[in-house]
User: What shape does this take?
Amino acid sequence: MTNWMELEQKYFMHTIERVPLTIVKGQGARVWDEEGREYLDFVGGWAVNSLGHCPPVVTKAISEQAHLLIQASNQFYTIPQIRLAELLVQNSCLDKVFFSNSGAEANEGAIKLARRYGQLHLGGAYEVITTLGSFHGRTLAMVAATGQAKFQKAYPPLPSGFVNVEYNSIDAIKSATTDKTCAVMVEPIQGEGGVNVPDDSYLAAIKAWCDQKGILLILDEVQTGIGRTGTLFAYEQYGVEPDIMTLAKGLASGVPIGAILAKERVAVFAPGEHGSTLGGNPLACAAGYATVKFIIDNDIPAKVKAVGQYLIAGLEGFKQKFPFVTDVRGRGLLVAMEFNSDIAQSLVMACLERGLLVNRVKPNALRFIPPLIIGNKEVDEALGVLDKALAGVAK
Ligand SMILES: Cc1ncc(COP(=O)(O)O)c(C=O)c1O
Assistant: This one.
């Protein structure tokens, strides 16, 4: 049998410590390795496989579109792109859409849009306030936006125009606001930062401040969007409407895509000011349309809310049994369990051995971001494995 891990070592840049598993096939919430061993997947392609692996509505849409038209360039009109844009606008508070290929690229475009808005309407203001512990992507500008030194320290000098302030503190945002500020960009819940859930009033307070100052609120919903937290978009739970919102991960079931959505008055790009060769290509947009339509038509967010509560309740139960479990937090199917020491990696391995895939979001925390289509049965199965894994660590 080919040793894929050895070949990876030889040919691939070592940018991540991978889990020793080669996945060759997926269906629903399950994946299989080369030897046919089955795993329950609570990683979900890092919150991407919203409808599970290879969902029939999406594979059908992809294969039909692949036979019709894969790419035509944005020099021309293409139908899947317009249909997906219409679907997103009709189901959100935003009016205009631009498609990119990833979350980082969507955020990068959102910053460009905010700067352009600043040039036109805010006397040249260009600075964007972001938060410590955030994650906005890996392009140079998004590394500067991301308030985590570990992603920034290897790449000085970073692009200027970003101020990273404490998360969940409206006062920190107020103090950092100057006449150079054009926008505040936050995640409704910080995903990669460890599933950090702010106070319920945080987003509304930011929005009120932005309105008072005439600056823009950009919500990075790359991870929280498309049903992940129990509503189609997380902002719906906080009584706010962003001026700009970005999406990616769960939008097209794994076909690369990103999106910038904006209010009409904020969508100030003129022809030539932004663009992409592959962004919004028919294949990705057909996958996106099939994904989002299924999620809306089947009210997947309501199911996510219920199953998410069931998962959180089950994890909470571990706090009694295993005193080293210090916190359980999250919304919908974006959930973390934290420990009083750095045992997350050994738990990832213990779960792997028992057929469950989980994500180490911090050295001392696991994150659960399974497909949105799981039910209580899969949660029970995962809790059973976690129980054994935690007991093993407790010894
Ligand atoms: C909130 C958030 N924004 C942006 C990104 C970057 O997205 P991508 O990896 O598609 O560039 C991520 C990825 O984890 C994310 O969680």
Notes: The mean pLDDT is 97. Residues 219 and 245 are 5 Å apart (CA to CA). The chain is about 40% helix and 20% strand.
